[in-house]
Amino acid sequence: AQTVTQSQPEMSVQEAETVTLSCTYDTSESDYYLFWYKQPPSRQMILVIRQEAYKQQNATENRFSVNFQKAAKSFSLKISDSQLGDAAMYFCAYRSDFGNEKLTFGTGTRLTIIP
Amino acid sequence: EAQVTQNPRYLITVTGKKLTVTCSQNMNHEYMSWYRQDPGLGLRQIYYSMNVEVTDKGDVPEGYKVSRKEKRNFPLILESPSPNQTSLYFCASMGDSYEQYFGPGTRLTVT
What we know:
- The structure holds two protein chains of two kinds.
- Chain A contains no helices and twelve strands.
- Chain A has strands spanning about 5, 10-15, 20, 25, 30-40, 45-50, 60, 65-70, 75-80, 90-95, 105, 110-115.
């Protein structure tokens, strides 16, 4: 079974600075997808960024980018120019390309933005 | 607007009183799923459905039932709720884009 580990329960960053959230995963599969979801106080789950394992190029979405290291099974999220609205719980998630297309989530990292 | 809706958003009930949480999506997605979120555990899949009349267990199915009689609806049924089912529940659906769309969540408290 796949597992996803987020080793940083809490992180904080000064507004306008850059922060990196860590995620590692364990799988024996070669084809899969990785995601970062944001959960603000409203509890809504919002997709931040997605990475296909077959793509070597790291995904970027505006101020959000990932560092995908397939051999190391690492998938970190970098947030540049942090804004107050980035304050939230962030979840890393894995999805297999086969069978049940469930998302396997990490335990989350709570990000605080310091004004 | 493409969306997944859940009702109710908040529910407080007592042990053993049957309840249903409804989930509906308007995107014609074949895949739907239920997750529960607990502090320190992230989200875990309860049940999923690949299409109408096709459902299967996820990682934590004990104490739950589901049905998929129509493509758009995927209700979660707790026939005899217990306090350990107090949690935040999410319904999700997925189409061809590989993105799972989540509902707004249902906060359930069982006393």
